Amino acid sequence: MPELNAIGIVAADPGRSIAFYRLLGVDFPEDGEGHIEATLPSGVRFMLDDEEVIRSFRPDWTREIGNQVALAFECASPAEVDELYARVAAAGFQAEKEPWDAFWGQRYAQLRDPDGVPVDLFAPL
Q1: pLDDT one-digit tens code per residue, 81-123
Q2: Of 9, 4, 6, nearest to 119 (Cα)?
Q3: pTM given for the model
Q4: Contacts for 19-22: CB closer than 8 Å, 24+ residues apart
Q5: What φ, ψ does residue 45 adopt, rounded to 5°?
Q6: Residue 21, by phi and psi: left (phi above 0), alpha (psi -120 to 50) or beta?
């Protein structure tokens, strides 16, 4: 059976996307042109490609509108959800929904990355 090995996002502004995900703890290398990736603690690779890279093999590629993918980052505690949400919002990134205690037993918050990808933060209550 195939195993999920990588998640890729096409970034309109890769530098801004790298800055956003670094705030969330993704350890992207300092160098990378067009394509950059980091291996997450789970072993899954997280990749960002600029639009030019995608068009190099898909010349007809265009950016879709809508939520094609969403990401969720597990935090160590409810306090970390609050702190991380505040830090990312203070850095000028889009804060979607402030932290709240969800009925399913988690502290939850929602952000958007520079390309509009929904990014959730959560921790058990």
Answers
A1: 999 999 999 999 999 999 999 999 999 999 999 999 999 999 9
A2: 9
A3: 0.90
A4: 19/91, 20/88, 20/91, 20/93, 20/113, 20/114, 21/46, 21/48, 21/113
A5: -85, 135
A6: alpha
